[in-house]
């Protein structure tokens, strides 16, 4: 079946450091790919998305590129801030008619001042 | 738009009691998902509906759990009887039923079973 695998956390970085959180997927067809973020005590919210191969999603300085050849959707940010501390989830939405959503296990990011 | 509305936000109950969690999806959204989140198991999909019809309930842990969606604007997740291991945050999310569908999550219902 379809699945999403993302790197284990927690990830601890100093402010202004470069961030990469790896995400790979297994899917039939052409799923849509997403990154969601969860701040403490809140529900998940969409960070960015990409709907087809080579698309780049971006938001708030975060970027991720849909790489079909490597089945990856790695999240990057050039300079993290303390306010970026949160849990990040990679997800896919199946391309079939059921549109089932599958999430990765989440990666906790802690940014130190 | 008020977003996805969940109630109650917090519930503390004793083992053996019935628990009902409620969700009102965003108007016009045809898909509704119930997730459970714990530190140990992360985010788990319990069940999802398309056009009020359950599509996949393979994530429902056992027969003590049941979910209904009687109409497009309301869904319930019921646990009967509840057990301490059911303690978790339960999230409801909704989306339009189409490709590249973005999920909108509610704020969650934190359940504690003593």
Q: What is the overall pLDDT average of chain B? A: 93
* Total beta strands of chain A: 12
Mean pLDDT score of chain A, rounded?
93
**Overall geometric form of chain A:** globular
What is shown here, in short?
The complex is a heterodimer of chains A (113) and B (114). With 113 residues, chain A is mainly beta. Chain A is 0% helix and 50% strand.
Describe the structure.
The complex is a heterodimer of chains A (113) and B (114). Helix content of chain A is 0%, strand content 50%. By secondary structure, chain A is mainly β. In chain A, a hairpin with a 2-residue loop joins strand 7 and strand 8. Chain A is globular, with a radius of gyration of 14 Å. The N and C termini of chain A lie far apart (41 Å). Chain B has no helices and 11 strands. With 114 residues, chain B is mostly beta strands. Helix content of chain B is 0%, strand content 54%. The mean pLDDT of chain B is 93. In chain B, the strands form 2 sheets. In chain B, strands 2, 4, 5, 6, 9, 10 and 11 form a 7-stranded mixed sheet that branches. A 4-stranded antiparallel sheet of chain B has the order 1-3-8-7, with no helix packed on it. The interface between A and B is medium-sized, with 22 and 25 residues.
